[in-house]
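Structure request: Lactoylglutathione lyase, Luteimicrobium xylanilyticum.
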Amino acid sequence: MGSLTGIDHLVLTVADVAASAAFYERLGLRHETFGEGRHAVVGPGFKLNLHPAAGDPIEPRAARPTPGSADVCLVHDGPLAEIVALLDDVGVPVELGPVRRTGARGPMTSVYVRDPDRNLVELCSYEG
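Returned structure:
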């Protein structure tokens, strides 16, 4: 029997799909439209589906889809200093960090930011 091996995608309920897509594009993810007008931001091996809070026809969905209720950690494959510099360049304020944390792969260093819906977005590096 096989086993669970990872997370394919997460769904973020958002107030404004375009604003959320633009935010995550500034972090280096790629905005894609798929299916019948659905939206996602995509990184290597994962995606964040962006579901509009109002008038969302997508079923099934979370029991209480609410903008700003997510807390997600995205992994950077280089030093954290690169992420900090990128955030500064694109005008995204760091709420906390750099701080040491423990992730799925072990010790890591993270910074925390907020997306347009006030979701907590942790950006981490296992390189320090």
